[in-house]
Write a structure and sequence with these properties.
The longest helix is centred in the middle third of the chain and has 10 residues, at about 155-165. With about 270 residues, the protein is mostly beta strands. The strands form three sheets. It has a seven-stranded antiparallel β-sheet. A five-stranded parallel β-sheet has the order 12-11-10-13-14. The protein has a two-stranded antiparallel sheet with strand order 1-9. It is globular. About 15% of the residues lie in helices and about 35% in strands. The chain has helices at about 115-120, 155-165, 205-215, 240-250, and strands spanning about 5-10, 15-25, 35-40, 55-60, 85, 90, 95-105, 130, 135-140, 145-150, 170-175, 195-200, 230-240, 260-265. The structure holds flavin-adenine dinucleotide. Flavin-adenine dinucleotide binds near residues 112, 116, 205 and 265. The site of flavin-adenine dinucleotide has 24 residues, from β5, β7, α1 and β14.
Length: about 270
């Protein structure tokens, strides 16, 4: 069955919000890694805010540690603070909130603890942020015959939204490079899809995903009800995943515009 990915641009918009709640989804990973759900709350409704696409993301400008009390802005009020891009998990524009699931990647042996992970884990409730609305949305309509979905922890929030759009019985493969139990991150894989959990190697993030994609040859292209099957590919993780994912698209004869392949972050060791 045909499906389409349509790109919708949104107007730029900055919003002042605050950390209203945090829920620890999972903890106890290496270097005390975990996942935290944060609720960002505005003083009023989020006029014009929407998120129709599974991979929709916004930018969060983070206040300065260790107080996390204010977000640096210039004279025009535009944030100059550092920012991170995060997937929209849920929102209620009328009630003025957005939920994000933030990986607290943990820091072992003097590694950089990061910016938004420590803020999500430890900033006091009420801590301010500035949020920049999604620049746009990629919306899937119709239904693919089969899927290949691959990602690391940073992509789990988007993968969860894509999986919720799929019907039971759709064939395909889900590759997750994660040390966490996917159920604790509310990942539910519809019946029919094969789930493979790949162990991350901290020194070579996304290498396990890349190897799994490299191992898929032309004959592994999922088949659906129609011939040729329409396969939707999502592959996002550390940026070294992009080249093997694009090579797979070429092997399977899939146009890059009909897939979502993206580097979500860049490892300093890459
Ligand atoms: C479109 C898009 C959507 C995204 N959605 C999400 C999301 O929903 N949730 C989410 O957590 N992230 C998401 N990311 C990644 C996000 O932008 C940040 O990279 C992430 O939150 C880490 O930020 P940080 O400030 O904690 O660490 P940073 O300051 O960016 O990095 C510090 C160090 O942490 C380590 N590190 C960073 N990220 C990872 C990782 N994924 N795995 C292992 N080690 C890591 C590296 O050693 C790095 O040097 C998304 C990125 C994009 C482009």
């Amino acid at each position: 069955m045909p499906f389409a990915l349509t790109r919708h641009p949104f107007p730029p918009r900055l919003r002042r919000m605050r950390l209203a709640a945090r829920t620890e989804l999972v903890s106890g990973g290496a270097g005390d890694a975990g996942f935290v759900r944060v609720r960002l709350q505005s003083d009023g409704p989020l006029d014009g805010f929407t998120s129709p696409g599974a991979g929709d993301h916004l930018r969060v400008f983070v206040p300065e540690a260790p107080e996390w009390a204010s977000v640096a802005v210039d004279e025009a009020g535009h944030p100059t603070a550092p920012s991170r891009t995060e997937t929209i998990v849920a929102f209620d524009a009328q009630a003025g909130w957005v939920d994000l699931d933030i990986l607290v990647h943990g820091a072992v042996a003097g590694e950089n603890p990061g910016l938004i992970g420590p803020w999500a884990a430890r900033a006091p409730l009420g801590s301010p942020v500035v949020v920049s609305d999604p620049k746009g949305s990629v919306v899937m309509t119709g239904r693919p015959d089969a899927v290949l979905i691959a990602g690391d922890d940073s992509a789990i929030p988007a993968i969860r939204r894509y999986l919720r759009m799929l019907d039971a019985g759709m064939p395909g493969l889900v590759l997750l490079e994660t040390a966490f139990d996917p159920a604790s991150l509310e990942v539910e894989v519809p019946a029919g899809l094969e789930l493979r959990i790949l162990a991350p190697d901290r020194a070579r993030p996304s290498a396990a995903l890349a190897a799994a994609l490299d191992a898929l040859d032309a004959g592994d292209r999922p088949v659906g009800g129609a011939a040729p099957a329409e396969v939707f590919v999502f592959a996002c993780g550390e940026q070294s995943l992009v080249a093997p994912a694009r090579a797979l698209l070429a092997r399977w004869g899939i146009d890059v515009d009909r897939a979502v392949v993206k580097g979500y972050w860049k490892s300093p060791s890459a």
